[in-house]
Specification:
It contains 10 helices and 14 strands. The protein has about 290 residues and is of the alpha/beta class. The protein has one domain: Carbon-nitrogen hydrolase (Nitrilase/N-carbamoyl-D-aminoacid amidohydrolase). Strands 1, 2, 3, 4, 5, 6, 7, 8, 9, 10, 11, 12, 13 and 14 form a 14-stranded mixed β-sheet that branches.
């Protein structure tokens, strides 16, 4: 399969039609290159808050509700795009108020027939919990698709090995991210590459890029698209299948062979995924040694 992952820059939107045209251009470009799976970044939906004006877009709480209120239209649009271009699409995540307390950070996943499911973020960053009051959402999911088994770890979630292990059956783990600084980008990238190593699978990282003075939540963003595999037989020695140019908007593409994932899991030079359980036997007790 061919995968496209986005380094996505936000726009100031003056109309819903402008947003529709933008998304159509992005999806059409990737589909035109033969991509069957498209991955957008974390909090890319925040540009929708600009449709309600400067005061709303610049206010943390009001921007949440402005974006959440448009999720019905967003789903209709992405379902249409997935069907029109015959692609799977992980849409840009959004703060979603679902009627159960505080909003969650939710990425919706669309299939080529227009069907939709979603993955909620599990563990909040300090900004999300201390300033924005975003809540953990529903459980991790494993999506069975015609492209293989796919999981999603939203940004900070990718930095936690046990979350990755819960998705150890996944052939691909998608990692939509939103990071302010270069250090944040590298934390998520290292997390994505680590989950690929441990699970002997492919991870696909998308990034928000660019500066947006109109927002307090997504005002500065650093990153690029990246697609990673285990540095083992059938994969690049660096583990990097493809990476974009830092902070340059656009798609990054890679061809992924599911048989290579199966082969490295069965007969790699190392078998991290198979040997995972051996850790428990080695850490039941830690011996203290005074030197």
């Amino acid at each position: 399969m061919k995968v496209a992952t986005a380094a996505y820059d936000l726009s100031w939107l003056d109309s819903w039609a402008q947003y529709e045209d933008k998304l159509d251009r992005w999806v059409a470009e990737a589909a035109g290159q033969g991509a069957e799976l498209l991955v957008f970044p974390e909090y890319g939906a925040m540009e929708l808050s600009t449709l309600d004006g400067v005061a709303v877009a610049g206010d943390l709480e009001r921007s949440i509700h402005a974006v959440s209120d448009r999720m019905g239209d967003v789903q209709t649009l992405h379902s249409r795009l997935a069907k029109t271009y015959n692609t799977y699409i992980l849409s840009a995540s959004a703060p979603v108020v679902d009627g159960h307390g505080r909003p969650v950070n939710r990425a919706a996943f669309y299939s080529p027939d227009g069907a939709c499911d979603h993955q909620d973020k599990q563990i909040m960053t300090r900004f999300e919990r201390e300033d924005w009051d975003i809540a953990p959402g529903g459980p991790l999911k494993l999506f069975n698709t015609a492209l293989g088994k796919i999981g999603v770890l939203i940004c900070y979630d990718s930095e936690f090995p046990l979350l990755g292990r819960a998705l150890s059956e996944a052939d691909l783990i998608l990692v939509p991210s939103c990071t302010e600084a270069l250090s944040g980008y590298w934390r998520v990238r290292i997390g994505a590459m680590s989950r690929s190593l441990e699970n002997q699978c492919v991870t696909v990282m998308a990034s928000l890029v660019g500066d947006n003075d109109w927002s307090e939540a997504v005002d500065k963003n650093t990153g690029t698209g990246g697609i990673f595999g285990p540095p083992d037989k059938g994969f690049p020695a660096t583990g990097v299948l493809a990476e974009g140019t830092l902070n340059q908007p656009g798609w990054t593409y890679a061809e992924i062979d599911l048989s290579a994932i199966a082969e490295v899991r069965a007969d790699g030079h190392v078998l991290n995924r198979t040997h995972w359980e051996e850790q428990a036997l080695r850490v039941e007790s830690v011996t203290i040694s005074d030197l």
